[in-house]
Design goal:
- The protein is α/β, with parallel strands linked by helices.
- It has a single domain, classed as Trna Endonuclease, Chain: A, domain 1 (3-Layer(aba) Sandwich).
- Helices cover about 30% and strands about 35% of the residues.
Length: about 110
């Protein structure tokens, strides 16, 4: 939370919250790259051997932002779960990529992912 007042990047703070929650849930967490695109988190659960890809964005209501978050996940050619976490109330599925409200996720929606 360093910096001047009013310049706080909420997306960055949200990424930190998600990162620490993934660790708290027992995951091994990596950051990934797909071409020139970044996947925010690759979470591997050592107990279940499950892998999940996460993108974190404050909001994806703007078409360009949604596309930017979807592209790295769409480029992955495996069957691991792919999730976009946002503060948006609207939850949906983009051809297998789930958009989930981050508050619902933090409160237990999808526990065990």
């Amino acid at each position: 939370m360093l910096g001047s007042a009013g310049s706080t990047d909420l997306g960055y703070i949200l990424e930190n919250v998600v990162y620490f929650e993934l660790l708290r849930r027992g995951n091994i967490v990596h950051i990934g790259k797909q071409g020139d695109r970044e996947v925010d988190f690759i979470a591997q659960n050592p107990e279940t051997n499950a892998t999940t890809y996460y993108q974190v964005s404050y909001t994806v209501t703007h078409k360009d932002t949604l596309q930017r978050e979807l592209e790295p996940l769409q480029m992955l050619n495996d069957n691991y779960e792919k999730i976009i976490l946002t503060t948006d109330i609207h939850e949906t599925n983009y051809q297998g990529i789930k958009q989930i409200n981050v508050i619902n996720w933090l409160l237990g929606y999808g526990r065990g992912l």
